[in-house]
């Protein structure tokens, strides 16, 4: 049957930034071939956890990977199916973007602390 549009898939293989390999555009995350998140404030990347922005940590951890030695594939999409929430990874990324922006804005409002 004819479908005028592709059904949205929330399956993720590997998220990446927009732009080119040399000039990444961090205001844009390509979630998959159907979904792109735009207008991400650059200040969101100032929220750092363990030496990496929380957004980049999520992007890295939620990629489908296969261990070379064992051949075991780690695919968070399988867990999404298991719990019946195909949008889990997508919504997690959106929540982390929002949390990052709000955290940075809150931290910027805190008074400066000086020690003598």
Count the beta strands. 7
Quote the beta fraction: 15-25%
The string of secondary-structure elements, in order, is EEEEEHEEHH
Strand arrangement in the largest pleated sheet: 1-2-3
Query: Helix content range of the residues, please?
Result: 25-40%
Shape: globular
Q: Averaged pLDDT, please?
A: 93
Q: Uncertain runs with pLDDT below 50, 5 residues or more?
A: none
Number of helices: 3
Cα distance spanning the termini: 74 Å
Rg, alpha carbons = 17 Å
Please describe the biggest sheet, giving its number of strands, its sense, and whether it closes into a barrel: 3 strands, antiparallel
Q: Strand pairing plus helix content: what structural class? A: alpha+beta
Description:
The protein has helices at residues 54-61, 76-83, 88-109, and strands at 16-19, 24-30, 36-37, 48-49, 52-53, 65-66, 73-74. It is of the alpha+beta class and 116 residues long. A three-stranded antiparallel beta sheet has the order 1-2-3, with no helix packed on it. It has a two-stranded antiparallel ribbon with strand order 4-5. A two-stranded antiparallel ribbon has the order 6-7. α1 (54-61) packs antiparallel against α3 (88-109). The longest helix is centred in the C-terminal third of the chain and has 22 residues, at 88-109.
